[in-house]
Amino acid sequence: MANILHPTETKFEDTWQKGDMKPTTLKLLHQQSVSKREWQNLFWDVHHVCSWDDHGGEKLYDALRGLILSFISECQQRVLGHQDDAALLRSYISEWVKFFAQCQYLPKPYMMLGTRNNKSGPGGSVAPAGSTQERPKDGMLVEKLMLDLWNESIFSTIKGRLQDSAMKLVHSERSGEAFDTQLVIGVRESYVNLSSDADDRLKIYRDNFENSYLTATRAFYKGQASQYLAENGVRNYMNYAAEKLREEDQRAMRYLETSKESHSLHKLHQCTVEVLVTDFKDQILVESPVMIAHNETEKLYQMFRLMNEVDGGVNPMRSNLESHIIQDGLADMEACADSITTDPEKYVEKLLELFNRYSTLVKNGFHNDSRFLTSRDKAYKEVVNDTRVFRLELHTKQKVTSKTQPESRCPELLANYCDLLLRKSGASRKLTSDEIESKLKDVLIVLKYVQNKDVFMRYHKSHLTRRLILDTSADSEKEENMVEWLREVGMPADYVNKLARMFQDIKVSEDLNQEFQDGLKEQGNSVADIVTLKVLNAGAWSRGSERAIVSLPMELEDFIPEVEEFYRRKHNGRKLQWHHHMSNGVITFVGNIGRFDLEVTTFQMAVLFAWNQRRHDKLTLGDLRFVISQISY
Q1: Beta pairing, strands 584-591 & 401-403
Q2: Any long-range contacts for 232-239 (C-beta under 8 Å, 24+ apart)?
Q3: Environment class of residue 421 by beta-carbon count within 10 Å: exposed (0-12), middle (13-18) or buried (19+)?
Q4: What 8-state DSSP symbol labels residue 137?
């Protein structure tokens, strides 16, 4: 009570030396038991000294510094007493763990030394003379003091031995020897926790432990990797490199700091990639063309994973893949050129076989990496559009053989194959609806790589025109679906829109034909049941304006004016143009061998009717020419 009433009589020496202040602090440093009363009195004594002694904060800071420094000196003597590396690490880790634990407790009673309203606090007489350090946060002064003293005293003296000893143990582990991993982990943790810089808590760890770890890793593999490659070859070395990369990543998880701000794991991975892969990139890539040619997808994938770690490492592999696809694909196409260039089905099947072959190679060998898919597409496009397989030798008028500049018939053959699938043919009848759809979509896969897409569309439109006019489509729904699929794969919009309008024309024409037939039935005309009209828009169908002059059978010839008159009444001002070469019909043939329905073109019908009208007469070529005055396709 006297101290409160007469504060000027309070002396630091009395409280520190004669009171419980110093003994309690020593107990805390040595991790000895402290009673509740001693712990509470320490808080009061620090507050008392800092509040009532004009220089109490400065004196208390100096006294505490000396006490901590003396304790650290004792620790240093115990640590340096060990010569064996493992014993040195164990001793250091043991001393550090105890000291660092007290860094969490001892500063609590001395927090007033770091408060901003203490006149003797940091920035005043408490800060060491000549100090340029920034003022620590409130309550952190003593913790900073403890860490700085440990760093300046024991750590700076033996950090070289600590790092060397820890790296030796890691080297032993890399060589297959067992040791106590906690020794390296403990050293790492001391480096991480030792920095008192609040803005960069990992500075000491990064400048010392991390740097030593990276240097030791690089040195270890620098010699071993080249020796292993020389003795075992590239293929075995790839296994070795992949295994060591995996081992080092796992080892780094144990021995390096894993917090996000450290970036140690990334640095270590880059270090091992450099010394195990980058330095031997050229030797490894030599095997790439051989592996691609022999379809060694497992080895290719392993090489891809290694080269993918190196900046630009996969580019040579991409070039090798492109070269292989072009050479192998063209060789296959030229080997069977005689059959595929005249058979659309075989041609498409060969292109699909190549596409699937190279797609499987990219999938298994490069895990469908987008860069290799791009390389596959680039090379396959060259195969699809190459003209060598279509090179033809033509005879000139002078009977001299010369080679013309070949043109790719790929768009034509693709269109012909689509026609086989979409019209009523032997090929389409053998397939189910799902099989036809699957084959059409296969065609679309190849079509994406065709350069002259407009050529394909011209052929396809020509085939579609014939199928729609002659009613030879196997499945009208498939026909319309095909138009949408062509739109989806990016075919020229103008062509696709015209195809869509053709279907609209057919539907309008059906309504018009039905109305015309109903009118004929009302008149009692029997021709209504055997004639079907198709009135189509010339703009969508792009048919020529020339007419094919032909002498039609009398039943049909008399029928034409009625059609024209009907259409004139429906659409005044419009003109019909007849395209007999796009017409067809069914006639019934009756003979001694039976009765047959013959599906014929208009010109074939005219010739047969001429024979029918003069069954027992001879018809000369001139007679037939009179019947069919001009045939224009």
Answers
A1: unpaired
A2: 234/283, 234/284, 234/286, 234/287, 235/287, 235/299, 237/280, 237/284, 238/284, 238/299, 238/302, 238/303, 238/306, 239/302
A3: buried
A4: P
504 in Cβ contact with 618 (< 8 Å): no
Handedness of CA 47, 49, 53, 59 (dihedral sign): negative
DSSP H/E element including 364: helix 344-366
β-sheet bridge partners, residue 19: none
Separation between Cα atoms, residue 437 and residue 440, nearest integer Å: 5
Q: What is the pLDDT of residues 184-243, one digit of tens each?
A: 998 898 888 887 777 788 888 999 999 999 999 999 999 899 999 999 999 999 999 999
Q: How many angstroms separate the first and last alpha carbons of the chain?
A: 127
SS (H, E, C) 404-461: CCCCCCHHHHHHHHHHHHHECCHHHHCCCHHHHHHHHHHHHHHHCCCCCHHHHHHHHH
Locate 71 and state its tokens: 């304790």
Amino acid (one-letter) located at 170: V
CA–CA dist 363, 35 (Å, integer): 71
Give the H or E element holding residue 510.
Answer: helix 493-522
Give the HSE-up count for residue 129: Cα atoms under 13 Å, Cβ half-sphere.
Answer: 1
Q: Is 104 exposed, middle or buried (0-12, 13-18, 19+ CB in 10 A)?
A: exposed
The CA-CA-CA angle for residues 22, 27, 31, to 5°, reads 150
Length of the chain: 633
How many angstroms separate the CA atoms of 330 and 294, rounded? 17
User: Which pLDDT tens digit goes with each residue over 483-532?
Assistant: 999 999 888 888 888 888 888 888 888 888 887 777 777 776 666 667 77
Q: Exposure of 203 by Cβ count < 10 A (0-12 exposed, 13-18 middle, 19+ buried)?
A: middle
Strands 393-395 and 594-601: unpaired
Whole-number Å distance between alpha carbons of 603 and 121: 116
Separation of alpha carbons 358 and 347, rounded Å: 17
Nearest alpha carbon to residue 322 among 374, 385, 369: 374
Could you tell me the two tokens for 539? 């703009």
Q: What pTM was estimated for this model as a whole?
A: 0.75
3-state DSSP call for residue 504? helix
CA angle 366, 372, 375 (to 5 degrees): 150
For residue 566, give the nearest of 499, 520, 528 by alpha carbon: 520
What's the CA gap between 506 and 509, in Å, rounded?
Answer: 5
Phi-psi category of residue 233: left, alpha or beta, with phi > 0 → left and psi -120 to 50 → alpha: left
Using DSSP, state whether 233 is helix, strand or coil. helix
